[in-house]
Design a protein that fits this description.
The complex is a heterodimer of chains A (about 100) and B (about 550).
Chain A lengths: L2 H10 L1 H34 L17 H39 L1
Chain B lengths: L1 H20 L15 H24 L3 H6 L6 H12 L2 H14 L1 H11 L1 H16 L4 H5 L5 H34 L4 H49 L4 H11 L16 H15 L3 H5 L7 H32 L23 H50 L6 H25 L6 H24 L5 H20 L2 H7 L13 H17 L4 H8 L1 H10 L10
Helix pairs in contact in B: 1-9, 1-15, 2-10, 2-15, 4-10, 4-14, 5-6, 5-14, 5-15, 6-14, 7-12, 7-14, 7-22, 9-10, 9-15, 9-16, 9-17, 9-18, 10-14, 10-15, 10-16, 11-14, 12-17, 12-20, 14-15, 15-16, 17-18, 17-20, 18-20
The chains are: A mainly alpha (about 100), B mainly alpha (about 550).
């Protein structure tokens, strides 16, 4: 079977649109979850630095900036975990079905 | 070979032209320290082990796929460690801790900027990169565009970034090693250059990967031990650690909040754009995605790499903050015993002094050996990326049009690695005692404004044409290099002019936007038959990018 027929079959398979759509939406959503807090943090540290003089609790010397920055790092990593669990599970299963059906 | 040499020489001339005017404003020369036997002994163990691995790898490296991508047989976890090893350079350990030591919270903001690109790389490019590419990033950039022009340009972009980054690493290596090991600067640079050549020339990607993995484990392990020793010193209390830091630092409580790094929002955004997208445009990082068998493992690699890098960055933040009180109040770590004066060994040394303070001489020796190993691993990754741009892109694809035999291509690769090694040694010596910080801005500027736009647009935008990609890339190259020259670091501090023409040190906000705009404009106005064909070819590329249909297999033989 020629490469073009396989490609045409993939394109015609509704599962292809489903997989690409789901994966793209997840990637965009997770990017926003990472980038919106990050850029908010960057703009606030530069425009409103006094916000970051607040401490985490009464009597503590640790300011809120430290745990927030750490949270951006840890949160970014957790989002990569969510992405690979979906992409390597559900989406890859769909992908395999699509390729198998196209090669039939 | 002739054309690849021309490209290489052009890259070096570009770099050398900076050497000419990088006169005044150089960082203070560091003093050579007494020879450190335990550090050298531990480093020798590392070198012998890695040379053993190189010998083993050389037996397994027969095809070009073995050489460039270790036959695609690296697992996601191994590759994740190796990517982390590539990204966590000696500058990360020394530089980030010293930023926190001197500026407190500002250092943390900087670290977050260096980290944040990783999740985005996973979401937007990792799987398409793996599905479309074979050996180099130029494979993807030129997938459906003109092989000669776009591949040459992409290879040139890779080589430029590799050259800038190599100089930074070599100069850092020389300074660090004369400081920690008591070796002469030039000797240190020659040792690093020769070991790098041996790893890359004989062991290719297999050896380079294992050097990265071992080094990443050593660095993570050393960091964790130092963290535990440090926290024990403060009775396992962050509260205690930070109150002592505030009491010891000359800026007092100000170190707990942002001070001046981010004073200008445009500058802050430009820095973060450059780091975010520059990371995605580093050729030696992109190359690592082709060492795994498929997109699934490529995703896993980024997950593990992001975890290791994020964890290590957090560790360095604690170490930097701890050094403020432990190192900053101990006269033994200051020149002439004057607390608050110049640190022995210069501003990058807080973490090394901290190691000595909490772990003694043997631990300092261990960490010094790890820092040396780190430099070695990073330069090897860079040299491999540079060599593959020369042999795979320029020689095999552009000059030989894909007719080169495996033997021929391998030969050119080896010549190219040796050439890059010699070049790195010469540039390392030429830039001795120069302030090379602007080269980091240049490397990330070029990566984000030349490599990244063509990479992302070729993967995501059907309308991209050869004309648009080429002129957009040139616009990105000229503007990023030009703006760095006109920036405060180069124009004022190095060239000695009174005021900077371009007010920001990082050019990405302008140069990246310009690159995207020019690429878009010259693509949409391109009505040539070639452009129509390139747009038609997007469909095939899109299906391959999404499903991995026809992607380069795990092994080529």
């Amino acid at each position: 079977m020629s490469k073009n027929t396989i490609q045409a079959k993939i394109r015609a398979n509704p599962k292809f649109a489903e997989m690409v759509g789901k994966r793209t939406r997840l990637a965009i959503l997770l990017s926003l979850i990472v980038l919106v807090p990050y850029y908010t943090f960057m703009l606030l540290t530069s425009l409103q630095p006094q916000l970051f003089t607040a401490t985490i609790s009464e009597g503590s010397v640790i300011t809120i900036g430290w745990p927030i920055a750490a949270l951006i790092v840890v949160g970014g990593w957790l989002m990569t975990g969510i992405y690979i669990s979906k992409a390597n599970g559900e989406f890859d299963d769909l992908n395999k079905q699509i390729l198998d059906e196209a090669r039939k | 070979m002739k054309r690849s040499l021309t490209a290489l020489i052009a890259g070096c001339l570009l770099a050398a032209s900076f050497a000419v005017f990088a006169g005044p404003g150089a960082i203070e020369g560091v003093e050579k320290q007494p020879v450190n036997i335990s550090a050298i002994a531990m480093f020798m163990v590392f070198v012998l082990a890695t040379l053993g691995i190189t010998y083993w790898a050389s037996k397994r490296t027969k095809s070009t796929a073995d050489f460039y991508t270790a036959g695609g047989g690296i697992t996601g976890f191994q590759n994740g460690l190796a990517i982390a090893g590539d990204y966590m350079s000696a500058a990360t350990l020394l530089g980030l801790t010293s930023m926190v030591y001197f500026t407190g919270f500002d250092g943390f903001i900087y670290a977050v900027c260096f980290f944040i690109g990783w999740p985005i790389i996973l979401f937007l490019i990792a799987e398409r990169l793996r599905n479309l590419g074979k050996f180099t990033f130029a494979d993807i950039a030129s997938y459906r565009l003109d092989q000669n022009r776009i591949r040459t340009f992409a290879a040139f972009g890779s080589l430029t970034v590799v050259c800038f980054y190599l100089i930074v690493q070599m100069v850092g290596a020389g300074q660090l090693i004369q400081l920690l090991f008591g070796l002469d600067y030039n000797t240190a640079v020659v040792v690093v250059g020769i070991l790098m050549m041996v790893y890359v020339t004989f062991g290719g990607m297999t050896a380079t990967t294992w050097v990265q993995i071992i080094k990443a484990c050593l660095l993570l392990g050393g960091g964790v031990v130092l963290l535990l020793l440090t926290l024990a010193h403060f009775g396992w209390s962050f509260e205690n650690l930070f109150s002592q830091a505030i009491a010891s630092h000359k800026n007092g409580v100000k170190i707990m909040a942002p001070v001046k790094l981010m004073a200008d929002p445009i500058s802050a955004i430009s820095l973060s754009l450059g780091l975010l997208f520059g990371t995605a445009g580093l050729p030696h990082i992109m190359m690592r995605f082709f060492t795994v068998p498929n997109a699934k493992e490529a995703r896993k690699s980024v997950f593990y790499a992001t975890g290791f890098i994020g964890f290590f960055f957090l560790v360095t933040m604690v170490l930097g903050a701890a050094a403020i009180s432990i190192v900053g109040t101990n006269p033994a770590f200051f020149e002439g015993g004057q607390v608050g004066g110049k640190l022995i060994g210069g501003g990058n040394m807080p973490v090394m002094h901290l190691a000595k303070a909490v772990g003694g001489d043997v631990f300092l020796g261990f960490l010094s050996a790890v820092a040396f190993a780190t430099i070695l691993a990073v330069v090897s990754g860079l040299a491999l990326a540079g060599a593959s741009a020369i042999s795979h892109d320029l020689y095999a694809r552009v000059i030989k049009k894909g007719t080169a035999t495996t033997e021929q291509e391998m030969k050119v690769t080896k010549y190219a690695s040796v050439l890059l090694g010699i070049l790195a040694i010469l540039l390392g010596i030429a830039f001795k005692d120069q302030n090379v910080l602007f080269l980091v801005a240049l490397a990330f500027g070029v990566a984000s404004s030349v490599n990244f736009p063509v990479l992302i647009l070729s993967m995501y935008w059907k309308g991209l044409t050869t004309r648009g990609a080429l002129w957009g890339g040139i616009a990105g190259l000229v503007s990023s290099v030009g703006l760095v020259i006109l920036s405060p670091t180069v124009w004022v501090k190095i060239l000695g002019n009174p005021a900077a023409i371009f007010p920001y040190d990082h050019p990405a906000i302008v140069s990246m936007s310009l690159a995207f705009f020019v690429t878009w404009l010259l693509s949409v106005t391109d009505n040539s038959p070639r452009a129509a064909k390139e747009k038609d070819a997007y469909e095939e590329q899109y299906i391959r990018a999404q499903t991995g249909l026809g992607a380069a297999a795990a092994s080529d033989h």
